[in-house]
Amino acid sequence: MTNDRHIAQEDLDLYAMQALSTGESAAVRLHLAECAQCRNELAEISGDLALVAMSVEQHALPDGARQRFVNRISASPASAEAPAVSRTIPIDARWPMRRAAVWIPWAAVAALLVLSVSLGMKILRLDQEIQRESSVAAVQSAANAHAQEVLDLLTAPTAQHVLLTAAKTRPVPSARAVYLASRGALILQASNLEPLPEDKTYELWVIPANGSAPIPAGLFRPDAAGSASLVLPQLPKGISAKAFGVTIEKASGSDTPTAPIVLSGAAPAAGE
Amino acid sequence: MLDRVQARDQMAMTDLFDRYGSMVYSVALRVLKDPALAEDVMQEIFFKVWENPKMFVQGRGSLGAWLAVVARNRAIDALRRRKPSDPVEDVVLTSKTNLASEVERNTMMEKVRVVLNGLPSEQQRSVELAFFDGLSHSEIALQTGDPLGTVKTRIRSALMSVRKALQA
Description:
- The structure holds two protein chains of two kinds.
- Chain A is of the alpha+beta class.
- Chain A has helices at 9-16, 22-34, 36-54, 65-75, 103-155, and strands at residues 174-180, 185-191, 200-208, 215-220, 228-231, 241-250, 261-266.
- In chain A, the strands form two sheets. In chain A, strands 4-3-6-7 form a four-stranded antiparallel sheet, with no helix packed on it. Chain A has a three-stranded antiparallel sheet with strand order 1-2-5, with no helix packed on it.
- In chain B, α3 (35-51) packs across α4 (63-79) and α6 (121-132) packs across α8.
- Chain B is globular.
């Protein structure tokens, strides 16, 4: 339809006469919107066609046609310029205006009212929906901003990284035992022990691996620093130990441990 | 005159109707071949001009030529019982003659008639089918049995003849 850059004149002829297909017309209209040269050529062709139109045999107007027109404009509003509802001239041969039923305008008004109400409700719903969406968007936006702040802080090269630990607390009581079952030899070193009343003492127990009753392994009291030691107390030889425990007993000691066990530790297998 | 119409001067509008009414009616009648329908088309066109005189933009050619093209287009729409194909404002034309003068207009029209009547019958037929019967190019090709390109060429040749005759 087009040559290199413009619409062919033959097609402009047909376009001016509305003799192109809908698709072809649309393509020409698109080109015309951009091309002054083709618009000018179309104007020339329309001028030619105007002459062709005007060359038709002339007929007198039907009787009363002039008066009908005068009556019509006389009845029209006297405003300076009536608002044009449409940019086009609606003409439909099936429904000529002078034979149109009078109810048509009222039906149109009613339809417009219904349409207006429907549109109003729709607008209201859309408005509410927009408000809801706006609220959600605001919350999400705040969350995103917060997350971004966190990320910025963590990745900032100039940020100071400081390790904080718990403030200095009271040392935990502990004890370390070294036991040689075959010789019945044992050394215990304890530290950070709680001070005891004068009538109390700590007592070490060997818990035999064979399940027999705990064997008392010596008494000891901590010094002012909470330290204490027990070196080679009297113990039977050949008693394999499953564990060791410390209890608080009366100052003279006890034959059986008294709960609670304040320190305890499982013995690893011999030789480990 | 349109300025007075713009000012809601009914007398000016009536003068405009008197000047161009029969021409617009004749064009519509030529297409529709029905006096009542042709008058409906004419009445609507002039009433639209009364409602909105700015539809016709000064400098877009003569008002008479513009009305003739609008009358033809709206009559074809009515013939095909379709909605108006294009806004009337889209009709832009170049007119090299003063068609507002009835004498000059009549002289010009006579020249055009002579040219059209002198065209080869195939060209006349193609212009007739496209312009007054509102057939598309493919419908014309189907009806005449001619190739599409031939239909286009005939219409182009006819319009060029009209233009040359008026320039002579």
